[in-house]
From TrEMBL:
PANTHER family: SID1 TRANSMEMBRANE FAMILY MEMBER 1 (PTHR12185:SF15), SID1 TRANSMEMBRANE FAMILY MEMEBER (PTHR12185). The lineage of its organism: Eukaryota, Metazoa, Chordata, Craniata, Vertebrata. Keywords: Glycoprotein, Membrane, Signal, Transmembrane, Transmembrane helix. One of its GO terms (cellular component) is plasma membrane. It holds the Pfam family SID-1_RNA_chan. This is SID1 transmembrane family member 1 isoform X2.
């Protein structure tokens, strides 16, 4: 590639250091016209080695290749990729080689310096455009150091597998202990006779009278309960009607239509009260609402099957291409801690996702136990005593457990061959987990007006479509970020309107006129205090956060759009959870020991997990050679790297987060629903 005629001399010498030793660093120089290759023979007691190459200089770009002992040796820029396994390199490279792949138990390590740096993310240096009469090759000399070290033994694999499974099986043991203690305590209480509703056990006697009068100070907010327009009188409208509703033998089938057509006008009055209580929003038949939420569970199973099967097929194809072509620039592993097993190049990154699957299944078992106990309690209680505590609908919890398991499966699929084109596999179910958690938190005190499974999953589908578009167009396309920011802001405003008016604000062609009238009358004509102050504070803060995200994306246009979108979901979830806990404590409700422990554990484990998440051991936003500059050795058991620890801790943190949502309102099991505020 020299622009001028080159004068050269030919010299033949005998190499004194042609064979590489084990654990013996060897330093040498190479250039485009002077490639180097060396021989390595496996010792009898070594089955696998790691070829580690380092250089102090980023450029010139180089290629490290492992080739079988054949002639000719492919040591030129245009043919080095024809044989064996190879990586492009700037400052470091690492290739794991197994003895079983070479019949002669020996191989060549070939080093080629490229005549240009484009493959490694560089450009043509200005120095080589100098018009002085010298060749390019002399300017592209690179000093390299190669070390061949034995790979880990089989015992390390066994210890890592045992550690992964036993660590998470300890959660099963802990859950059994908690369940046993709960069983012993419940047996002692049942043997002592009937208990009152206010003892915290969640069981009441059938002779307990149901009244609508409340003690002074028990209501939420300042409202005159003696007034005909007081919240308690309206709360009692559905209280008497729903008591005994389970005696009706004919259960309506689930549909998209409201199951309360006969009190449509009454519903409009109730849901627009200044102070709402749980009895106002839990008036529908319990069995119909439970059936509605079970659709979440069955739908997510269907989605998981149809989503996972093509993903598995695709990543198997990726791994096959890597194994057949030997091109290790396709997948962005942490090559300094990538331990192969069978056809898999980085088994440790796949194994570390077992926590999501095991803890997701454990969460399903915990929810199933609660579901069974709840059904038994309904069979033994008087029908009117069902008006106590938060309505128990477990469909969303089952869906969350399945989503956690599928996150582990799809994250493992992504780590079979992590790269730019399949990163959305690792994040798709994270969107769904965050969305399901927000829906569950909202459903807790709004069981009658929560989104249906069909609309929720349709919204998730739109989000995943945006994620794919962001991965494809989000790097440089300004039009995409303008479009996404508009969609983001409009969606935030629309959802805020629905939440503020409890679903009573119709979205149709007249929405703009109604919105203008509301703004004119409440903000311009007379600046009045918002009717629902607590909701208004939450929604204003939430919109400010979302608008900030939209402006940030529009200005900086982050390359990793999938993580940016996931950050939006997580921030909204944390904001809503913080608002919920604050309002719960403000309403003089308690946090029991188990949910309090889960909240603390969630915060601690998430903090530790995020520390390891931001270590950045590789990056598909850069070239493979630049990504390898970030590779680091293993930190746990000589088998797992920082990202594997992130997998372990994030699975644990998600599990504790789910337990927070499951147990957060256990203190209300013996409280009448017309005394539980809605926020």
């Amino acid at each position: 590639m020299a622009p001028y005629g080159a004068h050269y001399s030919l010299e033949v010498t005998r190499l004194k250091s042609f064979e590489l030793g084990t654990n013996s660093p060897f330093k040498f120089k190479a250039s485009p016209s002077e490639p180097q290759y060396f021989l390595y023979k496996f010792p009898p007691d070594v089955d696998s080695v790691v070829i580690k190459v380092v250089s102090e200089a980023v450029y010139p770009c180089s290629v490290v290749s492992i080739q079988d002992i054949v002639c000719p040796v492919y040591d030129l820029d245009h043919n080095v990729e024809f044989n064996g396994v190879y990586q492009s390199m700037t400052k470091q490279a690492a290739i794991t080689v197994q003895k079983k792949d070479f019949l002669g138990e020996q191989f060549f390590v070939v080093f080629v310096i490229k005549p240009e740096d484009y493959a490694c993310g560089g450009s043509v240096p200005s120095s080589i455009q100098d018009k002085a009469n010298h060749t390019w090759n002399l300017q592209r000399m690179k000093t390299l150091e190669v070390t061949v070290v034995p790979s880990i033994q089989e015992s390390v694999y066994v210890n890592a597998i045992l550690f992964s499974f036993l660590s998470f099986f300890s959660f099963y043991l802990g859950s059994l202990v908690v369940a046993f203690v709960h069983y012993v305590r419940s047996r002692k209480k049942s043997s002592s006779g009937s208990v009152s509703p206010d003892d915290g056990t969640g069981t009441v006697t059938s002779s307990h009278p149901i009244t609508v009068n409340t003690t002074e100070g028990s209501s939420y907010g300042a409202i005159d309960e003696s007034s005909p327009s007081g919240g308690q009188q309206l709360s009692s409208l559905g209280h008497k009607a729903t008591c005994g509703s389970d005696t009706d033998s004919s259960v309506e089938e689930e549909s998209d239509f409201d199951t309360m057509p006969e009190i449509e006008s009454d519903k409009n009055v109730i849901r627009t009260k200044v102070f709402l209580y749980l009895s106002d929003l839990s008036r529908k038949d319990r069995r119909i609402v439970s059936k509605k939420y079970k659709i979440y569970f069955w739908n997510i199973i269907t989605i998981a099957v149809f989503y996972a099967l093509p993903v598995i097929q695709l990543v198997i194809t990726y791994q096959t291409v890597v194994n057949v072509t030997g091109n290790q620039d396709i997948c962005y592993y942490n090559f300094l801690c990538a331990h192969p097993l069978g056809v898999l190049s980085a088994f440790n990154n796949i194994l570390s996702n077992v926590g999501h699957v095991l803890l997701g299944f454990l969460f399903l078992l915990i929810v199933l136990r609660r579901d069974v106990l709840h059904r038994r309690s309904l069979e033994t209680k008087d029908l009117c005593t069902m008006e106590y505590g938060i309505p128990k609908h477990f469909g969303l919890f089952y869906a969350m457990g399945i989503a956690l398991m599928m996150e582990g499966v799809l994250s493992a699929c992504y780590h079979v061959c992590p790269n730019y084109s399949n990163f959305q596999f690792d994040t798709s179910f994270m969107y769904m987990i965050a969305g399901l958690c927000m829906l569950k938190l909202y459903q807790t005190r709004h069981p009658d007006i929560n989104a249906s499974a069909y609309s929720a999953y349709a919204s998730f589908a739109v989000v995943i479509c945006l994620a794919v578009l962001g991965v494809v167009f989000g790097k440089n396309a300004v039009w995409f970020w303008v479009l996404f920011s508009i969609v983001h802001v409009v969606a935030s405003l629309g959802l805020s309107t629905q939440i503020y008016y409890m679903g009573r604000f119709k979205i149709d062609l007249g929405i703009f006129q109604r919105a203008f009238m509301v703004l004119y009358t409440d903000c311009i004509q007379q600046c009045s205090r918002p009717m629902y102050m607590d909701r208004m504070v939450l929604l204003v803060v939430g919109n400010l956060v979302n608008w900030s995200f939209a402006i940030f994306g529009l200005v900086y246009r982050p390359k990793d759009f999938a993580s940016y979108l996931l950050g939006i979901f997580i921030c909204n979830l944390l904001l809503y959870l913080a608002f919920y806990v604050i309002m719960k404590l403000r309403s003089s409700e308690r946090l029991l020991l188990i949910p309090l422990f889960c909240i603390v554990a969630t915060a601690v484990v998430w903090a530790a997990a995020l520390y390891f998440f931001f270590q950045n051991l590789s990056s598909w936003e850069e070239t493979p050679a630049e990504s390898r500059e970030k590779n680091r050795p293993c930190i746990l058991l000589g088998f797992f790297d920082d990202h594997d620890v992130w997998h372990f801790l994030s699975a644990t943190a998600l599990f504790f987060s789910f337990l927070v949502l499951l147990t957060l309102d256990d203190d209300l099991d013996s409280v009448r629903r017309d005394r539980i505020p809605v926020f």
